[in-house]
Amino acid sequence: MNIVNKDSKNTFTRMCIGEAIIKLLKDTDFDKIRITSVAKCAGVSRITFYKYYQSIHDALCDYLNIIIIEYLEECASNPESGSFLDYSHILFALEFFNRYKDYFLTLSRCGLHSILINSINNFMSEHFTNPKNYSEYRLYCYSGGLLNAFLKWEENGCDCDAGEIARTLEELYS
């Protein structure tokens, strides 16, 4: 699935579709959600849905890609975010993804971890794999560990400070 046009109206529509699916997942099993329900909840037509996606799974993956693009843009505009293995960057990541906790927790609760893992692995492969500096598997371990720590932190109601988690992960991966 390739989304070519990335203007703001296009992105807004795609985000509405993703948010509609998350809303529906709170009351409906993933395999029982229908495109008609998604379109109605998102306020778009079925034609609009099919303009962007072939399936609900595609829409959830794209929604995460939109989140990741926003993350990259904020990283680029925030010089204090540091190198991705640094405390400051891990803290930045935890705080950024906390904005989308509903998405992450809903997918986790529905057993859709593969969407999260596959997207994060693709992200690491495309943006950070540099054989001179980091092992590919170290990057996968880092991103999977960060995702798991983030999910558990959110599931536990953010029971400790994000800085504590960032320090722990930095120590683990440095």
Our estimate of the beta-strand percent is: under 5%
* Fraction of residues in H or I helices: over 70%
Query: Quick one: biggest sheet?
Result: none
The number of distinct structural domains comes to: 2
Give the ordered list of helices and strands. HHHHHHHHH
Number of helices: 9
Give a structural overview.
The chain has 174 residues and is an all-alpha fold. The protein has two domains: 1-63, Orthogonal Bundle (Arc Repressor Mutant, subunit A), CATH 1.10.10; 78-174, no CATH class. Helix content is 71%, strand content 0%. It has helices spanning 8-25, 35-42, 46-52, 56-77, 87-98, 101-109, 113-127, 136-155, 162-173. The longest helix has 22 residues, at 56-77. The N and C termini lie far apart (36 Å). Mean pLDDT is 90; it is low at 1-5.
